[in-house]
Design a protein that fits this description.
Elements lengths: L3 H33 L1 E15 L2 E11 L5 E5 L14 E7 L2 E7 L7 H26 L1
Keywords: Membrane, Transmembrane, Transmembrane helix
InterPro entries: DUF3592
Pfam family, one: DUF3592
C-alpha cells in the first residue's frame, strides 16, 4: 500500500486544524476588542496603500473624536486588497480608549471578522475532508 494517501490526508488534517485554531484565536481577539473598545463616528481622510510580498493592502486613515473630545487621526489596523473606503466617507470607528491610535472600522468584514470566519470554515473543511480520507484508508 502506498504512503502517499496517508501523507496527503494527515497533511490536510494538520493544515486544517492549524488554520481553524489560528482563526478561532484571531476571532476571539476581535471579540475581546469589540467588547472593550469604544465607538465613535468618524470620517475617512485618506487610504494608505502598504506593499508586501505578493501585492498590496489598503488601510483607511480615519479622523474622529474620542469620548473625552480628543481629535485623533489614525490608520485602521485591518486592511483589504481593494480600497473599500474612500476619503469623505462617514464611518463608525472602534478605538482602544487606552491607545486611541489603535483603531479599526466597525462592521463584520471591516473588523476582520469576515476574513477570519472564512479561514475557520476553510480549515474546518480541510480537516473534515482529511478525516473522511483517513476513515476510508482505515477500512
Amino acid at each position: 500500500m502506498s504512503l502517499v494517501p496517508w501523507v496527503v490526508s494527515l497533511g490536510l488534517l494538520l493544515v486544517g486544524v492549524l488554520t481553524a485554531t489560528w482563526a478561532v484565536r484571531e476571532l476571539g481577539q476581535i471579540l475581546r476588542d469589540l467588547r472593550r473598545f469604544h465607538r465613535a463616528e468618524g470620517e475617512v481622510v485618506d487610504v494608505r496603500q502598504d506593499w508586501y510580498g505578493d501585492g498590496s493592502s489598503y488601510h483607511p486613515v480615519v479622523r474622529f473624536r474620542t469620548s473625552n473630545g480628543t481629535s485623533v487621526q489614525a490608520p485602521s489596523r485591518h486592511g483589504d486588497r481593494s480600497p473599500g473606503a474612500h476619503p469623505g466617507q462617514r464611518v463608525t470607528v472602534c478605538y482602544n480608549p487606552a491607545n486611541p491610535q489603535d483603531v479599526f472600522l466597525a462592521g463584520w468584514w471591516r473588523s476582520g471578522m469576515g476574513a477570519w470566519t472564512l479561514c475557520f470554515v476553510a480549515g474546518t473543511a480541510f480537516a473534515a475532508f482529511a478525516t473522511y480520507g483517513l476513515t476510508v484508508l482505515l477500512r
